[in-house]
Amino acid sequence: MFFILTAMPGATTETMLNGRDLDLTGADAILALPGFSSIIHEVLDIALRPLVYAEQLEHIIGYLANQEHLGFSGHWGVFGVDMGDECLRLSLCSGFLATQRDICAKVPFGVCHCGQTFYRRKPTFFSDKPPQRLHDEATAADTHYCLPVMHGEQVITLVILYMRPDWRPVPTTHILLETISRVLALVFDRRAMDQQLIELVNDLRDTVVRLRGEKAFSESIIQGLDQGLIVVDSLGKIEKHNAAAARILGSFGLLSDGNLDELLQGQLPWREANPDDGKERECSLVTAQGEHICLRYCLSPRGDREEAQGWILSLADITELCFVRKEMEKMNRLSTVAEIAAAVAHEVRNPLAGIKIMAQSIEEEAESSDTQKECSRRIVRQVDRLNELLTEFFSYARPRQAHKRPASLATIIAETTPLISATLFMKSIRLVCRIPDDLPDIIADSNQVQQVLLNILLNAMDAVGERGVISLTAQHLTAAEIGGRKKDFPTLQAACDFVMLRCADNGRGMSPAVMDKVFEPFFTTKKSGTGLGMSIVYRTLLENDAQITVESQEGEGSAFTIFFQTNMTA
Q1: pLDDT tens-place string over residues 1-11
Q2: How far, in Å, CA of 407 to CA of 545, rounded?
Q3: Architecture of the 12-196 domain
Q4: Can you tell me the distance from the alpha carbon of 353 to that of 350, in angstroms, rounded to the nearest whole number?
Q5: Considering the domain 228-317 in this protein, what is its CATH number?
Q6: Which residue has the higher pLDDT, 511 or 19?
Q7: What is the rounded distance in angstroms from the CA atom of residue 505 to the CA atom of residue 557?
Q8: How far, in Å, CA of 24 to CA of 32, rounded?
Q9: Residue 88, pLDDT score
Q10: pTM of the predicted structure, to 2 decimals
């Protein structure tokens, strides 16, 4: 920053002499002052140096006070303004005696020469002794200038310059000092502006640092959420997403710089959602690999609803929750049907017993009528058939209590397969068993597990027909493996080990609708059958703390997978 100071021709400069105004007309006289230009240039040079305000004052005033040919004695002082105490405080000085420094350390407004100059706000020359000075104090001189440095109408600094004893006031000196005063004021203004700029830069830097910290903090929170967040523009282009969203929709492809509609092939109707109602919606998606994913999502506008520049989509993978919900609904239905079946079976069994007794009596009393005897026998056979059906009802409604204990799955399979060997041979069905010898024991009722296997194998034999293939495979799953495949087995407890038994066939398979109902009571695709077999399997496994799942595809076969708990802990 560079200052150019000129005195305009005809300008009038007002100063004070012993408290009186001095009117100095004509600025040409200032040009006659010896070395005036060099003094001003030196002062401006100091003003442009990278110094703090106090150092610049000391350098400028020290330089000026050493100009002996102008009458300065080399003694000077600088007072700062304390508006709180209404006084001037001595901050810098040169040539002051210790007693003088003590006296001038604090000068109230209006008391001393300096204090009077504060109110006059004009450069003032004094030739008499200051009121605060002692009469017997020895000093080199008492003639001095009091020079206020102004910022607008406010005095910010006051400078006192002592002159030689033989010096007399010269108008050009007044103009020079007034010019110096204005330079110091401009230095202060520049320093104030620089300080404001520094503070502004510091504030801006602090703001940027804070915003970066807040951004990093927000990013860490967003990235740490289990719920996925996707930011899209009005056209559906993905602008930003968190790690959870990439994990949830990763099977559809990369989210970065993609389009949400194209990525999900329009399966997610997010555009139809009304963000004003704040409701969460659920949707089922199918990946290119045929995997079903259930999502819960909610839509929010970016900015005002009417002027939204895009949308924020929050979503969560609820595939496991949907599976558990479906299992709970299935268990509730099975429980309700079981109670009804138990009541019906109990009420029907007693009348059937009476019908059978009466039919047998009629058969015994019939003398020679073959027709009458044959009808009685048919009645007895149908009653027996109904009794078998009621027995199945009771097995489903009130399964026998399981006596769970450690048992070898390989042994149970070895005892079950001979029961169906004849049928396998007649139908040319090949049974392949791959059961490891080192499997841990399962915790279950071996008799009930054998009944379950027999039921599943019989159904598989019906499904494959002649020359089909049925396979039995088993595998030990540790708790860590279960935890890592929680999405595949959402209902399994990850705190224990399991033995997984899989029975697969290459039969005709099932449609998705049939597969959803395979464990429901009274549901069957056979021409003859009660539809209770797989329901009994399901309830029996529940009693043994085991679980069963089914996979099937029409024309390719079906697979039932059973998970037995072991006596091994994680």
Answers
A1: 333 333 333 33
A2: 14
A3: 2-Layer Sandwich (3.30)
A4: 5
A5: 3.30.450.20
A6: 511
A7: 5
A8: 14
A9: 92
A10: 0.48
